[in-house]
Amino acid sequence: MKRGDASDGQAGRANRPGYLHLEAHQPSARLGDTLILDTLLDQMQDAVYFKDAASRFILNNRAHIAHFGRKSQEELVGLSDADLYPKACAEACRQDEVQVMKTGRPLLDRVEQAVNAQGEAITYSTCKYPLYGSDGQIVGTWGISHDITKLVKAEEEVARANAKLRALSLVDELSGLYNRRHFDHLLKITMDLFARKRLGRCKADFCLALLDVDHFKKINDKYGHVTGDAVIRYVGSQMTAHTRSSDTAFRYGGDEFALILQDTDLPAGREIGERLRRHFEQNPLMLNGSEVPLTVSLGIVGYQDEKTASELVLKADRELYQAKSEGRNRLCG
Predict the structure, then answer these.
(1) Nearest CA to 48 among 66, 65, 60?
(2) 250-273 burial by CB neighbour count: b if 16+ within 10 A, else e?
């Protein structure tokens, strides 16, 4: 492809983006041209390279030579990416360069993966431009690759930190269970989902259970708040260990917990709740070699097309109150 009229003269062509004096290293080149090019090749930290129409290297700066673990320009001249990179990577680079030469338009900020001479994975942001000869014809390509490995790693670390923060915002630190905020969110979603299932004439049942540690204040008063915290942790771990993977446990607040039992009708929910109640009754918390006996009370309800989450929670709370008023260590619902 030709860019402009060759009769424009060398001075005019030299001002065009992508133009390079290929003769710059010849004895007849002006000192200024040679000095500028040598500075670019020797001092620039980004990898700079020039290729002919067959994508063979014709000039490389010091940073690009070092990337391949080579010592001199002559070790790279005449080689292509096919000699240096895996086949798929080399073919992708060649396709980019063919496109640049065909259209005359640069490709900007392409993210590329490579492995340096030390075997380290490197991520580059690369720009590729058409390379014009002294007659205005495109004779190859040239490019600049900026190492963004540290930036990419930093972004990944930030993403992991943000994901951890999002997880922490949903989890109660003491019990290890989801917190009240996530309970409110998930209960609403569950109600919406099962309402749609029922509209589609599908069998759709789920249960909500509220669980309360019996006489928790007395445990705190007798054993201290450190033991009280241990009780909360113990209840949280046992709720996770002794419910199904499809069930979701929450610390609802204080010594009160909640369970959403998906795809579970009320009789099946009662069985799960009663099994959990018996487990706590029969397995006291062991702390420093001593038993800390504890029991729990549960209230459970099945979803009955309630319109709001608060309506369903209120029904479960009434059942929990009933269990406590009947003497605790029991399930109502």
Answers:
(1) 60
(2) bbbeebbbbbbbeebebeebbebb
Angstrom distance (rounded) from CA 331 to CA 333: 7
Of 191, 184, 187, 281, which Cα lies nearest the Cα of 242? Answer: 281
Name the CA dihedral angle for 84, 88, 94, 98, rounded to a multiple of 10 degrees. Answer: 180
User: Which is more confidently placed, 150 or 24?
Assistant: 150
CB 42 within 8 A of CB 61: yes
Among residues 14, 74, 47, the alpha carbon closest in space to that of 128 is found at: 47
The pLDDT of 267-283, averaged and rounded, is: 96
Domain(s) of CATH 3.30.450.20: residues in the chain: 6-152
CATH topology of domain 6-152: Beta-Lactamase (3.30.450)
Name which of 206, 233, 215, 181 is nearest 316 in CA terms: 206
> Cα 147–150–152 angle (5° rounding)?
90
Q: Where in the chain is the domain with CATH 3.30.70.270?
A: 169-332
Count of H helices and E strands in the chain?
Answer: 10, 12
Up-side HSE of residue 197: CA atoms within 13 Å toward CB? 16
Q: What is the pLDDT of residues 59-106, one digit of tens each?
A: 999 988 888 889 888 899 999 999 988 888 889 899 999 999 999 999
For 176-179, the CB contacts below 8 A with 24+ separation are: 176/233, 176/236, 176/237, 176/240, 177/236, 177/239, 177/240, 177/249, 177/250, 177/251, 177/257, 178/248, 178/249, 178/250, 178/251, 179/250, 179/251
- Average pLDDT value for residue range 280-294: 91
Q: What is the pLDDT of residue 17?
A: 42
**Looking at domain 169-332, which of 3.40.50.720, 3.30.70.270, 3.40.50.150, 3.40.50.1100 is its CATH number?**
3.30.70.270
